[in-house]
Amino acid sequence: MEPKKNQELDLKRNSLLYFSIGLAAVLLLAYVALEWKSFHKTPYEDIAHLKLEDDLRENAPITIQKLPPPPPPKIHTPPVIEIIDDDDDKTETFIESIEPNHTTEVASIGEIEVAKEEEPEIVPWKTVEEAPMFPGCENATDHRVCFQEMIQKHIRKNFRYPKSAQEMGLQGRVNVVFTIQKDGSIGDVRMRGPHKILETEASRIISKLPKMSPGKQRGTPVKVPFSIPITFRLN
User: Fold this and answer.
1) What is the pTM (predicted TM-score) of this model?
2) Does residue 193 lie within any of the structural domains?
3) Could you tell me the residue range of the domain that residue 168 belongs to?
4) Average pLDDT over residues 156-184
């Protein structure tokens, strides 16, 4: 049976080939369009490419500068030594030695003035030669240990916990520093604590300390500072 249409006149026979050729042409045109470069011409383009002729180039003239001559070197002339004749009328100066020798007289002890060393006004507790003496420690073997024990005993005896501090729940340590003066009295009291109420009570306890024998440095009364903590603790 013969086909109704001529195979050579069928348009769909080479459609795949035509499609491939058209696709390749479109891709080529798109690539050329994307890679195409164009430049905008500016009015300064001619100036940028302007070239000067060689005749217009001016070379700086070569000039010769005359420098001043260097200064002449300094020549040190040797000093002139003048030789004079001996003169018998001139007397030589005798320089007497001031170093002591066996003929030097020794000054008596009464003529020598001894400089007095100034004693410090305030001496720390640990370095003072004679520590202050608390009343009742006269017969103690160690006055420093007895002093500290009597201070602790005095604090326990006069300790009163303020009611306002108990109601407010205040407690803590108050560091107290006071100075035993040259006459044995207590002065220069300083303290630091967690609250003013506790500091006031610590000051009241220290104010009740009795008069003591002052500390001494080389036999001279001096001021001796002493520090002690007072602890306030709620049960």
Assistant:
1) 0.48
2) yes
3) 143-232
4) 89
